[in-house]
Design a protein that fits this description.
This protein has nine helices and two strands; from the N terminus they run αααββαααααα. The chain has about 240 residues and is mainly α.
Amino acid sequence: MNKNLWESISDNVFFLLQFFGIIIVMFIIAYAAEKLIKRRNKDKEPILATGKIVIIGIFSAIATILHMLKFSVPFIAPAFYEMDLSEIPVIIGAFAFGPVVGVMIEFCKILLKIIFTGTTTAFVGDLANFVVGCSYVLPASIIYAYRKSKKAAVIGCVIGTATITIFATIFNALYLIPTFAKMFMGNDIGIIIGMGNAVNQAIDSVWTLAFFAVAPFNFIKGTIISLVTLLVYKKLSPILKR
């Protein structure tokens, strides 16, 4: 890890504690849901069998590469909102092997990204990517795990897209945007709102930024991830199961 990463760690110990607390909560939700579903389906396969650990490693590497291939959507959101499609291998892994595997791939993706490139946002952006990614992966994979069918996959992806859109909107307005302003803008949230206003003149507050930029940004992201997943998962599923 580089010097900047160590400086970010030392300067943001409290934030890191919050970060790890949220990660633990996501794992607990995934584990509890999967345990209940396995009990209902009388499935005695371990939640983390050896083969699943191999899949986590492979899919985490793919997700990390996709995570690094970010691109902005300047006609919808300010340039600091960068889209990536790294949730595609995450949700495919979660559909094949359960919500816990999905959360582990999401976590390993962020961990690998930090190790290889460090953090330019003092971990704030990394936390956001993990939490928002889980807000899509968890509901979609839990619904699919409950009853594995094409209909359940479609419903899961639709619910996942709705969840990521709603959650990201609220999360940005209440936590992420104020935190970015405090840590990087001298607590001047008007700078961020001004960047949003340059894209859309209807943006004049934190909540209008969330509604008119964050919401459509994540709706588009969720829709793309869902369409790709529904197109390729059934073709990949037999290979993954072997």
